[in-house]
Specification:
Length: about 290
């Protein structure tokens, strides 16, 4: 009797194992093969490293490994088998789960992080160790960007809708349209916070005196940001509190035209991730 190289499945010797052939075939070949095709195992992680097969002898044969738990430290999971696993990482906590191949005599190949809230397909061989060859974020968002961080490693990030439009654009004009997505905002209090991931053109209805203006999610430094404010006032309101790093054409921040139905257009630009702005009065007292 011998066994296969990769998964140690039974290879019965012809004419051998009289009286026990069926049991050996069922226990050592058919049952493990069933686990390799559809078996799953759940592994709870916390702060200790873990080797697949610790919970049960058949765990190494399960094709689907579910990792869970609240992490209290960085944890490394070692796989002792050649072949492939589908691994799901639903762990929580501010720590990482890493995966490495170890066939009994030390780590083989590189250790890599499996990001939380992801599923990966991992393939191991005797010389290269374990590698990620497929990756899927576990998410309900339609705007999740999958990207490679290195050879056989991947990560994901949230991606605003206009950015998805930009990536899918097939022409320069379509790309420009994607960057011209507008936001319709009503300023009804003293503080105005603008999320630039939702669009760079601001159609602002001024219904209160604004004394604080701030931006979130600007593009990275080196990208040119231009934010036109198309301001429509509903009464005798003022608009001050522009970012303190703004330098203005003419040296002073503009006074917004007061009065119901009055319209102004103000332009802010930045090329350092929103750390500094330049401000321009495009038009005032439009009616």
């Amino acid at each position: 009797m011998t066994n296969t190289v990769n998964k140690a499945l039974l290879l019965p010797t012809s004419g051998g194992m009289s009286g026990v052939w069926g049991d050996n075939l069922n226990n050592d070949t058919i049952t493990p093969l069933d686990l390799m095709l559809g078996g799953s195992a759940s592994v709870a992680l916390s702060s200790s490293n873990y080797t697949i097969g610790t919970n049960s002898a058949t765990e190494v044969q399960d094709v689907f490994i579910k990792l869970s738990g609240s992490l209290l430290a960085n944890v490394t999971v070692s796989s002792p088998n050649i072949g492939f696993y589908f691994v799901e990482n639903t762990c929580t906590g501010a720590f990482n789960v890493s995966w490495v191949a170890n066939f009994g005599s030390g780590s083989v190949g590189s250790t890599f992080v499996i990001p939380q809230n992801t599923r990966v397909l991992i393939l191991s061989d005797a010389t290269g160790g374990a590698k990620v060859i497929g990756y899927m974020p576990i998410t309900t968002s339609a705007d999740t960007l999958l990207y490679a961080t290195g050879l056989y490693t991947f990560a994901s990030t949230s991606f605003p809708a206009y950015g998805r439009t930009l990536v899918g654009s097939s022409s320069a004009s379509a790309a420009n349209e994607a960057l011209a997505v507008t936001q319709n905002i009503t300023a009804s209090g003293a503080s105005l916070s603008i999320d630039l991931s939702l669009g760079w053109v601001i159609n602002l209805t001024l219904s209160a005196n604004v004394t604080s203006i701030a931006f979130t999610n600007p593009p990275a430094s080196g990208k040119f940001l231009r934010v036109p404010f198309n301001i429509s006032s509903t009464g005798s309101f003022s608009m001050t509190g522009w970012p303190g790093t703004t330098v203005w054409s003419g040296g002073n921040a503009p006074t917004i035209t007061s009065g119901s139905g009055k319209k102004d257009t103000i332009l802010l630009t930045s090329s350092d991730g929103g750390s500094n702005f330049r401000g321009y009065v495009v038009a005032q007292n439009l009616s």
